Amino acid sequence: MRTPILRLILLLPTLAVLAIGSLASAGITQSARATAMTIQVKGGEFFFRLSKKSAPRGTVVFVFKNVGHLVHDFKINGKQTPLLQPGKTARLVVRFAKPGKYRYLCSVPGHAAAGMQGVFTVR
After folding, report:
1. In this structure, how many other beta carbons lie within 10 angstroms of the beta carbon of residue 52?
2. CB neighbours (10 Å) of residue 72?
3. Per residue in 50-69, pLDDT tens?
């Protein structure tokens, strides 16, 4: 009878360390989400409209809505949304480590050349 109790007593410090570690990493994730900037992006034939054209270094959440009549996507810094049907929305989380100018575009053939492209500035 004493053996299970002794095991539990010996195991409690390990469980406490694991629980504290989990809470700490959850706090970091929540903190990163809290500091992320959200930018609304509307795209259609053949344009993009961004609610802001620049952001500080860090995490940016692009919320892309296809307001056109054809399928479109939004691509920036090596990441892109899936192809979206008209009226659909997708979120794209991008981490910008360095300031600079980043080209965004629709990757559907011919759409960038028709105007679905631009430059986003990271300060």
Report:
1. 13
2. 26
3. 999 999 999 999 999 999 99
